[in-house]
Design goal:
By secondary structure, this protein is α/β, with parallel strands linked by helices. It is 46% helix and 12% strand.
Length: 684
């Protein structure tokens, strides 16, 4: 039996040919060799018929075409195969561009990469104004360049500079912006798409393919500047540079020569380590959607929860986990208010408690500020922000938690205080209420030893600022039941956070590895390696900021406190650097409270803090960038290997994902342990 075609064609009563992408076996249409063959067959079949014009459309609800199949692209063996894959796609879309009659793209839903290159080869582009319609060429974000005509055709449509700007930024544009930028020709309501695309097709059939004004030639100074930026900001990754070459040089060539240049450059970047890394990261992110707790609760044996009751046994429940509705947050400080805001924004009813009314008020005003900012940045409508803010109630009264489904504590990082809180909560909350701690380092079982139902205790470690950081570590104690883990996993996904699951252990994963790294950077500093030398080395390697600058950002006080915890939990192994304690004693807290100071000063233009000289050894130490990078990366790799050996995380991919989402680890390196493996630095 032959498989049903992913692309079909029909001709309507008015002589319009319709090419429809609708893969019956998938929720999305993607380009791979079978889809390409199906498109070719559809085009060739219509070429044999007396059509007046053709419309290319999708049968899917939210996707025009999802672009090229990255599993296929990620496996291209070398530059030659990459260039050939580009040429094949270009030739296929060339059939649309050179079709005997006009071709109209009717776009609804996501239209990235190869999907938009399909549309670019058409003679007219109509798109819906639905919010799911996003359009553009994001290939550079995956270490690739548009290789099916994007680099050659977009400059001819909107000009070389605008094309370079769009392709290097690698973001998808809402349809309205795509219209303003010239990526599409018409914007229509979703219900009118077919009719308006058909009207455009009939008009072009009558008037001929549209004549387009030649855009201005490439400006050398603009491209020189863009290359400089790509070398510094994007750390010289190959794809942005290749895209700039393809656009600048290609816009001065004939279209066939520009396409050939594009294909050759595509081949080179597709074969690069960076493209393979970024595609790997794409799949790591994608895998989170399907994450379950199965690996932690094997059906038989296993070291976690001994609980085998029907509601919380090891076996996956056939019914979805019971969702939380009302969330309690205890502590209205930095994290508590951040968590309360995010939960309310995602539709939960929230009650937030602190010990003093003025602390509650302060927390509520922080929350209001985050909502106001979301409105100012057009991320939320005014009325939605107001409704979300109204879902948060502040209180000093613990009794208000009696009807909560989930309570998350974010009080001071102190074992005794948290234990006292869990004890106080025991008589108040419902028996089925899940109790979570947002501790950044303390073992959950230690905190929850006073809880009435240890099986319903868990860690949910959010990162600061909650509204911006995507990662949430879900921390399972030896007592956490499967049902609790299931519900909390569903909750973090519902919040739109990207979860990683780990076993309770001091510092869990991210705090542990990050603070071993920061501490080692401080140790180098104490040996006399200057702040800017350490920071520049790690920035050059790809980190968004160096470790000393990061300490200022986290806060010297918070860093010093966590160093203390790490020393306590890893005696002998964590030789805490002392510079942070000495800075604190001198009132240097980092970048807190606006114009404060730490390794750097922040009043006015950011600069190295001269006051740090008194803490440094008299003799400086020279260490080249590579040695610093290898040393500091080595510390992180060694600690991650320990974490994996101890079973705190299940896989090296989990570790890579957590650092990518929780610390700004450079994605183009593919992940810490992937890097370690490729650089021959891991034991595994
Ligand atoms: P914070 O000092 O800003 O806020 C803590 C709040 O808890 C204070 O307002 C305090 O009055 C209140 N509080 C203390 N005891 C209380 C009680 N029994 N009932 C109600 N409220 C009480 O602290 P922050 O930074 O928000 O940290 C909270 C927790 O989150 C800590 O466990 C910390 O380790 C963790 N965390 C902190 C991160 C950060 O970057 N600040 C990141 C991730 C986790």
């Amino acid at each position: 039996m032959s498989t049903p075609a992913t692309v079909t064609h029909t001709v309507d009563a008015d002589g319009i040919g319709w090419i429809t992408f609708d893969d019956p076996a998938s929720r999305a249409n993607v380009y791979n060799p079978p889809t390409q063959a199906a498109l070719r067959a559809a085009i060739e079949a219509l070429a044999m018929q007396p059509v007046k014009a053709v419309v290319v459309i999708s049968g899917k609800e939210k996707i025009f075409i999802a672009g090229a199949d990255l599993r296929w692209l990620g496996k291209l063996p070398d530059a030659k195969a990459g260039a050939q894959a580009a040429r094949d796609g270009q030739a296929l879309f060339g059939l649309l561009a050179d079709f005997k009659v006009p071709v109209v793209a009717a776009i609804h839903g996501a239209c990235p990469g190869g999907a938009y290159e399909t549309a670019l080869a058409c003679h007219w582009r109509v798109a819906t104004d639905a919010k799911e319609t996003v359009i553009g060429l994001p290939e550079v974000g995956l270490g690739l360049i548009p290789g099916w005509g994007g680099c050659a055709r977009l400059p001819r449509l909107i000009g070389a500079q605008a094309a370079a700007d769009h392709i290097v930024k690698a973001t998808l544009l809402p349809a309205k912006v795509a219209l303003q930028t010239g990526l599409i020709d018409e914007l229509v309501p979703p219900a009118d798409l077919r009719a308006r695309a058909k009207a455009a097709a009939l008009k072009l059939a009558a008037e001929g393919k549209p004549a387009r004004i030649s855009p201005p030639p490439a400006d050398a100074a603009f491209f020189a500047e863009q290359r400089k930026l790509a070398l510094t900001r994007l750390r010289g990754q190959p794809a942005p540079l290749a895209a700039l070459d393809a656009i600048e040089q290609g816009s001065g060539l004939t279209l066939p020569l520009a396409l050939e240049l594009e294909a050759a450059l595509f081949g080179e970047v597709a074969a690069s380590e960076v493209a393979k890394n970024l595609i790997h990261v794409f799949f790591l992110k994608d895998a989170v959607k399907k994450l379950t707790v199965d690996a932690w609760f094997p059906p038989v044996g296993g070291s976690l929860s001994p609980d085998t009751s029907a509601a919380s046994g090891r076996k996956a429940s056939p019914t979805p986990p019971v969702p939380f509705k009302k969330v309690g947050v205890i502590g209205a400080g930095v994290m508590g208010s951040g968590i309360a805001q995010w939960c309310a924004a995602r539709g939960y009813t929230v009650v937030m408690r602190d010990v003093q009314p003025e602390f509650v008020e302060r927390g509520l005003s922080i929350i209001k500020g985050v909502f106001d900012e979301a409105v100012a940045r057009k991320k939320m409508k005014t009325e939605d922000a107001a409704a979300a803010f109204a879902r948060v109630t502040g209180t000093t009264d613990l009794a208000r938690f009696a009807d909560c489904d989930l309570v998350i504590e974010a009080i001071v990082e102190n074992v005794a205080a948290k234990q006292a809180l869990f004890a106080d909560l025991a008589p108040v909350v419902r028996a089925d209420c899940v109790l979570a701690s947002n501790t950044s380092a303390l073992p959950i079982e230690e905190l929850a030893s006073t809880a009435s139902h240890p099986g319903r205790t868990v860690g949910i470690h959010f990162f600061n600022p909650v509204s911006k950081m995507p990662l949430a570590e879900i921390v399972l104690s030896p007592h956490t039941t499967r049902d609790t883990a299931d519900r909390v996993l569903a909750f973090t996904k519902q919040l739109g956070k990207t979860p990683v699951i780990c076993r309770s252990s001091p510092g869990f994963f991210v705090t542990r590895v990050l603070f071993f790294y920061l501490n080692e950077a401080c140790a180098l500093w104490e040996q006399g390696v200057p702040t800017d030398v350490i920071d520049r080395a790690m920035r050059d390697w790809g980190w968004p900021m160096g470790p000393m600058r990061l300490i200022d950002e986290v806060g010297v006080d918070v860093t010093d406190f966590i160093y203390g915890e790490m020393k306590h939990y890893f005696p002998g192994r964590f030789a805490g650097a002392t510079v942070c304690s000495r800075m604190l004693a001198a009132g240097l807290k980092g970048r807190k409270n606006g114009a404060s100071a730490g390794f750097y000063t922040y009043a006015g233009k950011e600069a190295l803090n001269p006051a740090m000289a008194k803490f440094a050894p008299e003799a400086g130490k020279t260490m080249d960038a590579r040695a610093i990078q290898e040393h500091l990366n080595g510390v992180m790799i060694a600690e991650t290997e320990r974490v994996l050996a101890e079973g705190v995380l299940k896989t090296a991919d989990d570790a890579d994902f957590a650092l990518l989402m929780g610390t700004g680890f450079p994605a183009f390196r593919g992940g810490l342990m992937r890097y370690a493996k490729s650089a021959g630095r891991s034991k595994g």
